[in-house]
Each structure stands twice: as C-alpha cells, then as structure tokens.
Specification:
53% of the residues lie in helices and 12% in strands. The protein has 308 residues and is α+β, with helices and mostly antiparallel strands. It has a domain at 106-170: 2-Layer Sandwich (Alpha-Beta Plaits), CATH 3.30.70. Helix 3 (37-44) crosses helix 11.
Length: 308
C-alpha cells in the first residue's frame, strides 16, 4: 500500500492548494473546520506537501476569503469564513449526494439578455456551467429541473436578475422539431467526462479491492486517510465538471455511477479508521478533535456510526 501511495503521488503530484481544499472540506469541515497550522502541516506531510507549501496555500486561501487566522501565542489557528463555509457546502453537497434517481422531464431554462455586458455575460456563463447548465444556443442555458432553482440565485448574486429570464419547460414530442433531450449530447462534453471517470476507476479500483480483502480492524489508519483523501480529491475534480444528468439523458454505459459506487463503498469501509488518524494528528497540539456533525454521517446515503 505504501508503494502504491508513493507511485501515485509521484505519477500525478497533486497541487498543494487544491489538495488542501479537498482535505479541509472532506475531513476538517465536519469537525468545525478549525485546525492549528502545525496540525495541518503534519496532516499534509504524507502527501508530499511540505511545510512551506502548506503555509503558502493557507495564506492564499485566507487572502481569497476562504479562511481566517487566529494567533494564540506563537501558534496560528485557522477556521473557515462564512463565505468559505458556503463554498464548501455547495461543492460537497454535490460530492456526497447519490445520483439523481428520477426525472419527470421538466427543464430549468435560463435566457440571458443579448445586451448584457460581456464581462457579466462571461461570469454568468461560468457560474451556470459550474452549476451544471449546458449551453443550448447563444444566451440559452438549461439543466434538468431540480427541487429548487439554481439559475435564479446565481443571477441574483451577480446582480443581473433583471436581465435573465428563468422558466420551466418540457419537450413536446408531437411538435416534429428537435428537443432539448436530443440536443443534450451537444450541450455537454460527455465523452471527455466519461473518459475521466474511467481513468479514476482504473487508478483506484485495484487498490481499493486490496482494502476490501483485508480485515478492517487491521487497516493502517494513516494509509486509510491518505487513500481516502486522494480518492475524494480525484472524484471531486471529475464530479464538479459533471452536470449530473438523469440516467435517461446519459449513454447506457455511463461510468459515473460506477465511480460513485466505488467512492461510496471505500468511504463506508474506511471512514472510522481514517477518522482515528485525523483525531490523533490533531490531538498532538493538545486539542481534542470535536465530534463530526450529523451531515458527515449522512454522506453517501449514510455511514455507520462506528467511532462516534
């Protein structure tokens, strides 16, 4: 396992800031999102992220409004800002939620005013794409409808609510014209996304089978934490580009479901052991790790309450 971790980190070294965001959101946020800088340095060391890179990454995240610092004597402690907590919540809600099981055929459509200034238009486009919307025509974005509108809050946050029309729509199969469902393949780059999911399955499938074959009680806590973090990091990078379309709009051999199942099963298998490593690492600075919140145990459809 140690050799696999070493080879994986050497073959595809993670960017320090990006991996730190993964570890903070996956491991630290459920425990309040507060950590001593010295604990964070120890936590990131097994990934090949040295002290200088941790300090630089934390400084940049603080400068960007994700983190805030508190100095206690000669020690520094960091916590999520309100803005940082919202950003984590938005992203990680998508990561741990099961794929959409049912879709009734309704679309959410956003129509953008043609004379919207180009800078705002580009910002709105990027935000809508991050939320999973596909571009079906210039100024026309759509996504299979969810419980709550995603486009309206984005337009409001950018101050362009009066320049965006958000409506609900359904395809009319009797019209004889093209439908949104038929145009979906061109609105999103599904082949590239499928290839990314298959690379994840190839990269992690065999090593996770090794964990499945062993005695859970004998698993190495540090290795569980490292592999879990690397898996969530890889899954996050693919999933946040995924519009998470319902199955009826996806190819029949869509690998996203297998990637979700692999990540879910490994998380359920190792979360209690990995949590022990996290607690021990943070306890070295004299503070007990607060218990994980209830949302943590709801991840991936529910984790066993082992280790509470």
């Amino acid at each position: 396992m140690a050799r696999w971790i070493g080879r994986t980190l050497a073959a595809d070294p993670p960017r320090a800031r990006s991996l730190l965001v993964t570890v903070w959101g996956d491991a630290l946020e459920p425990h309040g999102g507060v950590v001593w800088l010295s604990s964070l340095i120890r936590l990131m060391a097994p990934f090949g992220i040295n002290e200088r890179l941790v300090r630089t990454s934390v400084f940049r995240l603080a400068a960007d409004g994700w983190l805030a610092a508190e100095t206690v004597g000669r020690q520094s402690r960091y916590h999520l800002t309100a803005s940082g907590a919202r950003r984590f919540a938005d992203a990680y809600r998508r990561i741990y939620a099961p794929p959409q099981a049912h879709w009734d055929g309704e679309w959410e459509v956003a129509l953008v005013a043609a004379d919207l200034p180009s800078a705002l238009r580009a910002q709105l486009r990027d935000e809508l794409r991050w939320a999973g919307f596909g571009a079906f025509a210039p100024g026309v974005y759509a996504h299979p409808a969810r419980e709550a509108s995603a486009a309206a809050p984005i337009a409001a946050a950018l101050g362009v609510a009066d320049r965006v029309i958000v409506l609900s729509s359904r395809d009319d199969p009797q019209s004889g014209t093209a439908t949104l469902a038929q145009a979906a393949a061109a609105a999103w780059d599904l082949p590239a996304l499928a290839a990314a999911y298959r690379r994840l399955l190839s990269r992690f499938g065999a090593v996770i089978d090794r964990f499945r074959q062993g005695d859970t009680a004998l698993l190495d806590a540090g290795q569980c934490f490292v592999v879990r973090s690397l898996l969530i990091h890889a899954y996050r990078r693919v999933l946040l580009r995924d519009p998470q379309l319902p199955a009826s709009l996806l190819p029949p051999d869509w690998p996203g479901a297998a990637a979700y199942a692999l990540t879910r099963d490994f998380y359920r298998l190792t979360h209690a052991v990995a949590e022990r490593h996290l607690a021990a690492t943070c306890a070295a600075d004299g503070d007990a790790l607060p218990p994980a919140d209830t949302a943590f145990y709801a991840r991936f459809g529910g984790l066993q309450d082992v280790g509470r």
